[in-house]
Amino acid sequence: MKDTGEKITPIDPSRNLSDAIRDVKNAFADRDDVVVDLREAHRMRLELLAAELAPVFADVPADMDNFDFAVSSGLQPRLWIDAVSHVAMGRDRRTYRFLRDTRIGRVVLAESTDMKIVADQVTRYVAERVVERQRMMEGGVEHAASGMTRVAVAEAEPPLRAAQRGKAGSAFLSGLGLILAGALVGLAVSIVLFWDRLVAMKISF
């Protein structure tokens, strides 16, 4: 076999798989640190908003348990107001976005880099929910029940009238039947009484 003259570069003894694995782990760790830092920054801003709204949350009636008022953990922290509304941070990490889930999709109730503007909108939202509940407790349910009663009575009236009309019609038919029966009886009696004369008249013809 001839020697081609090519030289094979020897492998560096210091380069091995364990070093490559360590480098990859360090890269992942750096990226995870960025994600964690971003999440913590979002959470910190939301906690500042929650502190701004703390007096509002404290004024909510104690018997209203449909509000949450808590900052959730996760990849995207959120300040939950109730089961369908929350505040999250925008992609720029500075914009507060007050969102609400509806039947037609998610809608933006407020969006601003000014924390106080979003806090005012959240305050108004909470106030609207409190007023709605108070109105329902004070009379909404009673009015609805009375309305249902009126509808039930209105729906019950036509069958009653129909029954009355049915009774009137039955009485009329009964009277007419009695008249016809009396007429037939009278006719029969007349025929019996005047039978001889009828026969005589027929013979005379």
Q: What is this structure, in a nutshell?
A:
With 205 residues, the chain is α+β, with helices and mostly antiparallel strands.
Name the strands of the widest sheet in spatial order: 1-2-3-4-5
Distance between the termini: 160 Å
Approximate strand percentage: 15-25%
Helix content: 55-70%
Largest sheet: 5 strands, antiparallel
* Structural Rg: 46 Å
Describe the structure.
64% of the residues lie in helices and 15% in strands. By secondary structure, it is of the alpha+beta class. Helix 1 (17-59) crosses helix 2. The longest helix has 79 residues, at 115-193. It is elongated, with a radius of gyration of 46 Å. It starts with 16 loop residues before the first helix and ends with a helix.
Sum up the structure in keywords:
single chain; 205 residues; alpha+beta; five-stranded antiparallel sheet; 3 helices; 64% helix; elongated
Topology, element by element:
Blueprint: H1 17-59, E1 67-72, E2 78-82, E3 85-89, E4 96-102, E5 105-112, H2 115-193, H3 195-204
Antiparallel strand pairs: 1-2, 2-3, 3-4, 4-5
